Amino acid sequence: MKKANPNQDRPEIFNTAVLKKIQQARMAQPTAGELLSGILSGDINALSKAITLIESSNPKHFEKANTLIHSCLPHANQSVRIGITGIPGVGKSSFIEAFGKHLSGLGKKIAVLTIDPSSTISHGSILGDKTRMEELAKDPNAYVRPSASGETLGGVARKTRETIVLCEAAGFDTIIIETVGVGQSETAVHSMVDFFLLLNVSGTGDELQGIKRGIMEMADAIVINKADGDNIPKATLARTQFAHALHLFPSKKSGWIPTATTCSAKTNEGIAEIEQLISKYIELTKNNGFFDSKRAEQNEFWLLETIHHQLQEHFFHHPEIQKELEKTKKAVQNNEYSPFAAAQLLLKKYFKNKP
Amino acid sequence: MKKANPNQDRPEIFNTAVLKKIQQARMAQPTAGELLSGILSGDINALSKAITLIESSNPKHFEKANTLIHSCLPHANQSVRIGITGIPGVGKSSFIEAFGKHLSGLGKKIAVLTIDPSSTISHGSILGDKTRMEELAKDPNAYVRPSASGETLGGVARKTRETIVLCEAAGFDTIIIETVGVGQSETAVHSMVDFFLLLNVSGTGDELQGIKRGIMEMADAIVINKADGDNIPKATLARTQFAHALHLFPSKKSGWIPTATTCSAKTNEGIAEIEQLISKYIELTKNNGFFDSKRAEQNEFWLLETIHHQLQEHFFHHPEIQKELEKTKKAVQNNEYSPFAAAQLLLKKYFKNKP
Lengths: 355, 355
Fold this sequence. Notes:
Chains A, B: This is ATPase/protein kinase. With 355 residues, chain A is α/β, with parallel strands linked by helices.
């Protein structure tokens, strides 16, 4: 008896050869070169695929990702990078939507990225981001990309920094980085943008109480959102209070004097003024050289930061250190050992046992 | 002919045997055990010698210094540690003198240490410290020790932290750490004290302009000095402004609400109130557990800080890295390399070439 061909009587879709072909076509990833030419021609689909490649934690993708970033670098760096932070409830999404649409109306191309290390845990904000900026996401001049996921802020920050490069190479001239203000994310965002905007609302008179330490001093502008309707007098008062508080801080290396202003993402009141404010800042800092020197400094910062971070990773994952660390910490906390003497003991073990 | 004895006709002082004995006696250093018992009995001479031992950069002294600190630890940690910072001209020395004399009058024993990494360069402040607090230095209840010298803030910070331990073991119940506000020294001081006091004076209305970023947020109290004579109204106004600014900051983990107050080191007005303020803080934080948990955290901080610092030292002094670093920095600054890709290249070289 003739051996039955298992595919003989099945519809074509079950034919393994055809199936394999379909699967291969689906899995065929564009090469770095294909992604690059897609990005340079402003193809959003290629950009999205490239960002996904960069976000991949599969070590096989690292080299391709690095090649791609490297070839995008000469085409990047022509944008204005704006960081926006503020505690939940101040209306960051609606502000970015209103602000982004205003920029789009001026003929600008806007990419919105978010840094939200917490999104790995809830996975909620990814959906959130997409629905939150519906209008802007539909705008042909805008690209909204939710937060890279990652276990650590360092990982998320790296991915975001490299996504900026890709977006710039794709022709976006305004990059907005939003952060929800979890942990150290504001500091990370501050270290990758040209202009740092703190969004706030008027409240109970304790407007600054929700803001993390040091954030106000980083701000180039404080914007009081929701300045509409009955809320206008309160927002105006808050603006005055913030302006006064900003005045008390040391002057900035940029030569820029931070200001406080009001706006309404609902009525669009004040939105145009914020764009003008940022343009003034860019003009000032490009003229006095601060813009370029800050970007060079930021690049160096991320070089050193990555080194510091990985040296520590290597140390604290060393089996010998992992065995000793908790015990040593306890002894130091309880004043049984001087922190410095204890550090020497651990370091001796680490360097002795190096491969 | 009999060979002449070269020492035969010389006065005894030139006799080499005697001379050697004198030299040996001079050079004979007390043992760690001798220093310890001296310190525990409150012998200032032993304390000074021990601090000098800790400050020594001679590697031969390290082990003895570590032994001494280790044996002092069980007798330390019973003091209140107060950090005092302020820009030049606010009268830090005269304030510490007035404040220290007040504490001495209350029966307290005060040690005053300074952190001034710049003193290595000028060598001026060492003399300065000694003459600046003449009155306090003469007080039998006070011990004034100028800044440890050292090339790096890290080194100075380590020496100061260990000097605190020695002073506490010697029975000092109030340790004042003064910093002149150079570089990152305020942050270092903040990480080794229980209470952080920012000293200021009234000025042109821009009182905060001279203060470095983040310092105000660290302060548990802001004291406006020189509130005497014609200056009282201006100082009172400055106090109000600072109180308002402090109110705008996020609340502290300690549960303490930072306050602003005025004083005069000249008339002693307000000095007693500052002591009461600090006592209240200590009472509050000892009751709510913050005092102990902060000290344990500080110990851990210095353990990790020392490790971070030395890992970096080791990396950046690696010959292979030294050869490449400047070139790599330049390439990264000029956007020829992604900071992350460049970091990987350096790290690969470092770990491959480890002994």
